[in-house]
Amino acid sequence: MTIARALADWALALEPTAEDLALADRSLLDTVAVALAAATHPIRPVADALAETSGPLAGDAARWALLAHVIDFDDLHMPSTTHISTVCVPVALAVAPDDADLAARAYLAGAGVMARLGTALGWGHYTSGWHATTTAGAPAAAVVAGIALGLDAEQLATAVALTVPAAGGVQRAFGTDAKSIQVGMAAAAGVRAAQLAAAGATADPRALDAWLTLVGGDPGHPLLVDPAGDPAAVPDGLAVKVYPACYALQRPIGALRETVGGPVTADQVTAIRLTTPRGTVTPLVHHDPSTGLEGKFSLEYAAATALLDRHSGFWAFDDEAVAREDARRLVGLTQVTLTEGGGAGLLDGAVDVEVDLADGTTRRGSLDLPPGSPRRPPTADEMSAKVVDCLDLGGVEGLTPDEITWASGAALLSTQLGAGRR
Questions:
Q1: In the chain, fewer beta carbons within 10 Å around the N or the C end?
Q2: What is the pTM of this model?
Q3: What Rg, from alpha-carbon coordinates, does the chain have?
Q4: Which tens digit of pLDDT belongs to each residue from 73-101?
Q5: Dist. CA 371–CA 378, nearest whole Å
């Protein structure tokens, strides 16, 4: 039994529970809202170009996945460090735009494969510099598309194997357009692989086993040996971002906000000290950011916006906000101490914060679970507020959160973001 076939068999046998379907509905709402927030983003011409070069169905998946990821506000599967929905929701909507039940089931099957494969790739894969959303995303996209196209188990395993040449992507892309482009390319690769398998293409399913070993994964991981061993479609659930930046910044921002209790002026702060396990800052590669994209991957800038801004929303991560004199000053005052650890992921251990103020006092705090994490899920009000903010940013008028469903998702994305020929 190959890994590709084991995952294919599991995906085809999946019978979603009420909890699975609730997760699918939240993921759909979150992903479509975040994609719509990018409706006026400067990267739109790039997304259009990627779509045009990818083919009709693959092009829609690529366009929508790229735009769902570019502002880094999409959900995250913690054990695999992958943005599952930014790949799997666009593919499901692109390939099954008129069948809500099929699209939701295809999403859950692909999301489950992405969670299992990504978890088997492990934290070591991520800390080696791979972009796990794209490495695990391409095979998962093939499963989503394959389920939607009605492939059988052999064809589905073939489709997964056919994505191996596209199952790449590196963290050096972070802070540039290439990060979201990689995600769009992974989504398109999965759709093309499923279409090729449907047309009769052949491949050796053992290609996925070989690839997994080459990129440092564990072929014997329990979730691959027995994918049904965990009854949840997506083991451990998904984290929803509260702040539109890398997930590694959610906890530091939350810790500083809870510690200080409100915005301060730059001249009130004399020092900022953050202590966190080394592995929890792996994607935070920009220490002196000069652009909004770089700010999304900067621990130092996270400290600045957490203290200066009443809400670290979209504006806090644009070029103008990062270039503020007050923000630049606080970036320079931030000291980061990395302790040993972090091997369990971005939420390993806790982040400890200290802020020295000009009045001679020091405020201290510690946080292990940020808002929106799987064990601290967003409330209905938090989700609604996030969706409304996204729609406002994208200039989408006259739409309420309740109107974003599996039945309407493809039409909304097509209208606001564009679509190819079907």
A1: N
A2: 0.85
A3: 21
A4: 999 998 999 999 999 999 999 999 999 99
A5: 7
